[in-house]
């Protein structure tokens, strides 16, 4: 049931006809302080409006939708703005949620894929 809700939320947030040309996966992460973070990755077709895709996270009762960003290693998602915002960075089975400001990035949660 939770997967269906996450998927529906992610597909509602992607622009235009991107949802029809996308595929998705859901992964749960066990993080610091016993926090569980479900993440739904919506991967866009090449050349689409959000090429590379988006991730929809549920953290402490809030839903975060982040867009794929360039990274030297792993997969990085953030919100394109010159101000502050969240960043979700994954590599292998590990993920970190950061709070980004113009001064830098501070890790908020360190996570590992669960089940």
Describe what this molecule looks like in 3D.
With 115 residues, the protein is mainly beta. It has a single domain (2-114), classed as C-type lysozyme inhibitor (Lipocalin, Beta Barrel), CATH 2.40.128.200. It is 10% helix and 53% strand. The protein contains one helix and eight strands; from the N terminus they run αββββββββ. The protein has one helix spanning 2-13, and strands spanning 23-31, 36-43, 54-59, 62-69, 75-78, 85-91, 94-101, 104-114. Strands 1-2-3-4-5-6-7-8 form an eight-stranded antiparallel beta barrel. Strand 7 (94-101) and strand 8 (104-114) form a beta hairpin. The protein starts with a helix and ends with a strand.
Task: Sum up the structure in keywords.
mainly beta, 115 residues, Lipocalin, single chain, 1 helix, disordered N terminus, 8-stranded antiparallel beta barrel
């Amino acid at each position: 049931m939770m997967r269906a809700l996450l998927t529906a939320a992610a597909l509602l947030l992607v622009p235009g006809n991107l949802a029809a040309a996308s595929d998705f996966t859901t992964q749960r992460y066990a993080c610091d302080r016993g926090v569980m973070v479900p993440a739904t990755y919506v991967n866009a077709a090449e050349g689409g409006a959000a090429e590379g895709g988006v991730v929809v996270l549920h953290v402490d009762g809030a839903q975060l939708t982040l867009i794929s960003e360039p990274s030297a290693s792993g997969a990085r998602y953030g919100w394109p703005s010159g101000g502050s915002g969240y960043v979700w960075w994954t590599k292998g089975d590990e993920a970190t949620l950061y709070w980004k400001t113009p001064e830098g990035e501070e890790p908020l949660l360190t996570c590992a894929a669960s089940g």
